[in-house]
Amino acid sequence: MRTNFNSIKLTKFNIFLAITLGYAIMIFYLSSISDLRLPRTGMLMLNDLIRLFHHSDYALLLSPLSPLVMQRDKLLHIMLYFGFGLLLYLTLRSSGRSIASAVMLSVFIGALYGVSDEFHQVFVPGRSAGAMDIAADVTGVVFAQIIIILFYSIRGVLLRLSRLRYRYF
């Protein structure tokens, strides 16, 4: 059976799905590398970022997350899965799901993928799986969804304010 590639429509959903699947494959590939090290410039930037959070006025707010933030690999997990969480949301939202449904499914799928990624690492020489890695993965996905919810909340307030302004002024 031949596939006719001309019949594949470039819808918003298909584009986001392809990008999200590519991102998931990238995560899988990075997890398959036995000795994954950051380039020196990346490490310097990461150290600066950690120092910024450590010595800021927000240190008290970040203290519950200090085990994740102070361990460089956990911060990388959070950042990587933050991007994954955003892409999952955009993919699910473009499929016609409601905001709430897309957010909840993104967290579920992201957490499930994080667990499967850690399980995969058990079989990679030189790598190990851990509960803190899973926690960092889920934290990244959840942070992405919190940012999305905040975006829609702020957008809603601004839209209501602009309607009031035009109504009364």
Textual characterization of the structure:
This protein is mostly helical and 169 residues long. It has one domain (10-164). It has helices spanning 12-32, 40-54, 59-62, 66-69, 72-94, 99-121, 131-168. Helix 1 packs parallel to helix 6 and helix 5 packs across helix 6 (99-121). It starts with 11 loop residues before the first helix and ends with a helix. 20% of the residues are buried. The mean pLDDT is 83.
Number of strands: 0
Shape: flat
Question: In which range does the helix fraction lie?
Answer: over 70%
Q: How large, in whole angstroms, is the Cα Rg?
A: 20 Å
What are the SSEs and their pairings?
Elements: H1 12-32, H2 40-54, H3 59-62, H4 66-69, H5 72-94, H6 99-121, H7 131-168
Helix pairs in contact: 1-5, 1-6, 5-6, 5-7, 6-7
Characteristic terms for this protein:
mainly alpha; 7 helices; 76% helix
